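> run fold Oxidoreductase
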Amino acid sequence: MSKHRKIRLGMIGGGLNSFIGIVHRIAAYMGEEYTLIGGAFDSNYESALEFANKLELDPARTYPNIDTFIEKELALPENERIEAVVVVTPNFLHYPMAKQLIQAGFHVICEKPVTNTAAEAIELEELVHKHKVVFTLTHTYTGYPMVRQMKTMIAQGALGKIQKVDAQYYQGWINPVIHDKDKRATVWRLDPAKAGQSCCMGDIGVHAFNMIEYTTGLKTLKVLADVDTLYEDNPLDIDGTAMCKFDNGAKGLVRASQIATAEENNLRIAVYGTKASLKWEQENPNYLYFLQEGQPLQVLKPGHEYNGDLAKISTKMAPGHPEGIFDSMANIYLGTARAIRGEAYLEGAFPTIRDGVRGMKFIEAVLASAGNGNVWTEIVD
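> ok
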């Protein structure tokens, strides 16, 4: 029996005090598919070394910047160098760093948004194909077992023809600072130079959009959108709604807000078909609600034999034991590991650069629709 080899993992960003860095590292460790070797963890090299020492990593594999990371790693024998790199930097650095890594032949696991523009995302997609690397975009919520079960049931026709989709992502985190001009000037997500074209729709609205296309298999053809910055001197949206037209003729909604007072992380999706409906919400992720006319409500949960293969392989706990966001991210890392090794994996095992391209096109179409007086705007593919 051949020995199972762990993938050598690197990380750009994600050092001291990085919440999302912790999520990625725990997710990578959970499936026992990766070993974190080194990286460029912080723009401050001393902080990066302190972080590496805390994790008992080799300081020689802790680099001051991405250029040095690539140069030094490529100089190592192929069987020693880092193979896959996690990019968990501020938004504006995703594109240039991912581009460098892809061109150097590394597999990439990238936080979203994938880029600042759709044109940049298309360029990355072309480079991924050219250099034959695996690119994973961490739309984390697609990793939940019951989201994957939702995808399976819809593909199997359990709902009939889809005729209405409603996806919502409500948070209230920015509400305490948005009403104070001095405070909001310090929030990097409201700075176009760091956050890109959009705050709310780019940060969380795109998750709701991705959830629709992931679970239903539908493609969004057009959007009619409106966004709100709340104050004239605030350059980026903090609230928005987009009506969507899908390629099967159905319509739906993407609703997102960061000023939904006291909301925490309220992502939910409802898909209505001619035969039945499915509903799921992130704050109660173990429950998938299946509704049929004239029938009692069914509640499906992970860990049971009635679920499909994609949900089964995404479930690590016995029935009744909650699975959360770390498990969800870990499922994405597991699918990525199988792709990196050239092993078989199920469709939907991890979001790809294609999801990044679609997300950026959605964001740009929403902004164009709102900016042109709330008109239907095509998402050209």
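The longest strand covers residues 162-170.
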